[in-house]
Amino acid sequence: MLNSALVKDVLHQALSTGGDFSELFVENKRGESLLMRNGVLEEAVSGITYGCGLRIFNGGNCVYAYTNDTDRDSLLRLATQAAAAINKDGGGQVLDFDRKDVPNAHPIRIQHFDVDKKTKIDLLRTAHAAAMEHDSAVSQTTCGYASSVQNVLIANSEGLWAEDTRVRGRATIGAIASNANEKQTGGLNPGALAGFEFMESLNFADLGAEAARIAVTMLRADHCPAGTFPVIIDNGFGGVIFHEACGHSVEATGIVKGASEFAGKLGQKIAADCVNAVDDGTIQGAWGSINIDDEGMAGQKNVLIKDGILTSYLVDKLNGQKMRMAPTGSGRRESYRFAPTSRMTNTFICNGTHTTAEIISATEYGLYAAKMGGGSVNPATGEFNFAVLEGYMVRNGKIAEPVRGATLIGKGGDVLMNIDMIGNNLERAQGICGSVSGGVPTDVGQPMLRVKQMTVGGRS
To answer: Which of 89, 98, 223, 409 is 20 to 30 A from 16, alpha carbon to alpha carbon?
Structure first.
């Protein structure tokens, strides 16, 4: 990392043309990934990401520049060039640094890079073998392992100096089942803000078999009927709908522009009374958790919805100034190449009071979405469509035949208002969320819940 004298000079130069605030983000990240297809290792990649991002505020405007050349002359030149976009009298001052003690709430036991590649490859081969053995219809597997250690320094003109180390690891296990006419996929992607001990806690044979089971089940399923009827969405990756259709709509990035269905609705009812939802960056070892965000603020638990009432937005520093709201520890970025903005961490609907059996038995006819796939959403309106990766019909209060090709279509606000039962089996799943500040690790989640009426796209 850089010495404090150089950092202070860079921040001072960034304010030389009248900027109000300057910030330097320094990143040194080591990463490794392994990719296996059909039991054969095809890729083994490792590398270093290193560089600095410089941000300058001028009122509600922001200038951002970055470089991977961090010698003194280069950084001062970067600051001069970035500051040239601002031309006004006055400007901010650079205060003496107050070095922030950042407690590590996510200790690791085994560093990923201390484990030899053969051990990791053997885990992937175990998943591959279990998937292929599950059923003769399994025609292909893709198994991956990725880990990283990211060291960051965040320093700004207000005197902040904070350093942090983030260690993450993730497995990606996928299977394809096929016949003469088509293919279906299944997959699991567990990850954690943890060392290799997390990988040791996983049963890779079970992961491979489960990925294969999903693919084979959907291959042999009939097409889903289209219509409007109750939809039961299971836990874990079922939370991707809340994340995409609702979570993005409470990020200040869209709120400040009025490009969100929840803009101006703090304190108003936006969901059924049974709905409580949080974004919690403090969960120990969770994939989306943080010690500090990428603006140097401690991660925190933000209650987004309380008994159906919108209680909070996710706010970063710049948009917080525009909205006259305090930041919520939500300023995140993929790397030094991106300026931070408001982003989710671990976002989920909280446990309700119903059991799984109660929710299913109370549904005379509907769709049970066991696992969700990909989709698209317009955060400005909340309108979305999501594919159901694994689905079943519900008939006479019981889970019936599997169905494929189901798509859930709706609007985030409408879905929240139409939730009438929430289970007590909260589970989270891991993903990479993409937005204007790049891709960041996030958890999505919920208990099983029922939406009393929802549009389902299908073919029969």
So the answer is: 98
* Residue corresponding to tokens 């603006």: 295
Contact present, 92 and 55 (Cβ < 8 Å): no
| Residue 460 pLDDT greater than 70, yes or no | no
> Looking up tokens 């005379």, which residue turns up?
364
The topology (CATH level 3) of 112-152+162-221 is PmbA/TldD fold (3.30.2290)
The helix, strand and coil proportions of the chain, stated in percent and rounded to the nearest 5, come to 25, 45, 35
> 419 near 231, Cβ under 8 Å?
no
Distance separating alpha carbons of residues 430 and 438, to the nearest angstrom: 16
Q: How far apart are CA 314 and CA 93, in angstroms?
A: 28
Residue 225 CA to its chain's centroid (Å): 31
**pTM assigned to the model:** 0.96
Lowest mean pLDDT: which of 90-99, 128-137, 403-412?
Answer: 90-99
CA-nearest of 211, 209, 206, 210 to 176 is 211
Residue 215 contacts residue 456 (beta carbons within 8 Å) = no
